[in-house]
Design a protein that fits this description.
This protein is mainly beta. It contains eight helices and 30 strands.
Length: 393
């Protein structure tokens, strides 16, 4: 990075114009960015920066490809090619691994019209003997390679900006056991929630529950129902259907609630009292120590026995919106703390409810699973395995 732009919010504009003037006999130099100016009937004059784009953009999803062992030795990604060329474009799509024992994956592509798109699927294998493999994807055409996407970040209050995204995939390979005979999993999607896609990727498809299913559907057929992060704010039907969900748990189901904010706590939606401090308790150090309060509890042993390595590699934070106080009906399973702070016991609470089980967790699983953190995936699978009558241990 050039020293002159280090620390700047954005890189220099791709095209500028320099004006050399004489004012009162003294030379003055002005530099201005070249922009496109247009008029909008509602908004008035709009200025857009000039964008310099490659002939072909390459975007890949997912960026993290989970390869649980022993079930999956390879995984599929979707590659979207977007052409900016004035005519047809053809070439070779390449996925190059950082593992010497794995060959580059190639596939021809053709975009038959100017500024068109194409979507392909690639099968990417794991790296034998390694826990992680990285892939760099590119489109090769007319002797040149292109390997990034340029999504446009555009909002009314900021100028549009391109955000270069390298076409890259990280694929962690890790041991994962799934519960025998795991039944149907219902899921109420929360805010910016990618957990259902991750669960499906490791072999646990979920059924998304919308307002009709929550308020009038038959919930008894689900082995577990998962509430996504902040779903009590984003799905209005959830509050109305909460009595039905508690009845489902009392009848033998597993109700697993991920982190919620003040509306959940103030609404008394949990079966037993929970309170939240102001400001709320959280553990911000993602590598902070974790102490198991019941090491042999099924959450930590079945079907995956968790160890110290499962708490490594977490991203951004450990937990947030941790209950400050909780009813004795809840059993705390974890003690979490930031350095120099007292332990927090509300990170993972399990309570028997009738013939079933209620779980509240403030662990930032919604961040960990999309980031491909193996230990978090293994923990989530163990939580789902609690479905059925509560375990006496």
């Amino acid at each position: 990075m050039p020293e002159a732009i280090r620390g700047e919010a954005f890189g220099p504009p791709p095209l500028t114009v320099r004006l050399d003037l004489q004012l009162a006999g003294r030379p003055v130099t002005l530099t201005r960015e070249v922009v496109h100016r247009e008029r909008d009937q509602a908004l008035g004059e709009i200025r857009r920066p000039l964008r310099v784009v490659p002939p072909v953009e390459v975007a890949v999803a997912p960026a993290v490809l989970l390869l649980p062992r022993p079930a999956q030795a390879a995984g599929r990604v979707r590659v979207r090619l977007r052409s900016h060329a004035p005519g047809p474009v053809a070439g070779t799509l390449r996925a190059e691994p950082d593992c010497p024992g794995v060959a580059t994956v190639t596939q021809p592509f053709a975009i038959g019209e100017a500024r068109g798109e194409s979507v392909s699927e690639l099968l990417l294998p794991a790296c034998p003997g390694r826990e992680r493999i990285g892939w760099r994807l590119s489109a090769e055409s007319e002797g040149r390679r292109y390997g990034e996407a340029l999504p446009l970040i555009e909002h009314p209050h900021v100028r549009p900006r391109s955000w270069p995204q390298p076409a890259a995939v990280t694929a962690p390979a890790f041991p994962l056991a799934l519960p025998d005979g795991l039944g149907r999993i219902g899921y109420v999607v929360g805010a910016l929630d990618q957990v259902p896609e991750v669960l499906a990727a490791v072999g646990i498809p979920v059924e998304r529950l919308g307002p009709a299913a929550l308020e009038t559907g038959d919930l008894g057929g689900y082995a577990a129902i998962v509430i996504g992060p902040r779903a009590y704010e984003t799905e209005p039907a959830l509050a109305r259907a909460n009595p039905r969900l508690l009845d489902y748990a009392r009848a033998g189901g597993l109700l697993l609630v991920q982190y919620q904010q003040y509306p959940y706590f103030n609404g008394d939606f949990a079966p037993f009292p929970l309170t939240l401090a102001r400001p709320h308790d959280r553990v911000t150090d993602e590598s902070s120590p974790v102490r198991l309060l019941a090491p042999e509890h099924p959450v930590f042993t079945r079907p995956n026995r968790l160890g110290e390595a499962d708490w490594e590699g977490w991203v951004q934070e450990r937990a947030l919106y941790l209950p400050h106080t909780f009813d004795p009906a809840y059993r705390p399973l974890l003690a979490l703390r930031d350095p120099g702070e007292p332990e927090q016991l509300g990170g993972l609470l399990v309570a028997p409810v009738g013939a079933g089980t209620y779980v509240y967790t403030g662990l930032a699983l919604f961040r960990q699973l999309p980031a491909g953190v193996p230990g978090a995936v293994r923990l989530f699978v163990n939580l789902l395995a609690l479905g059925g009558p509560p375990d006496p241990s």
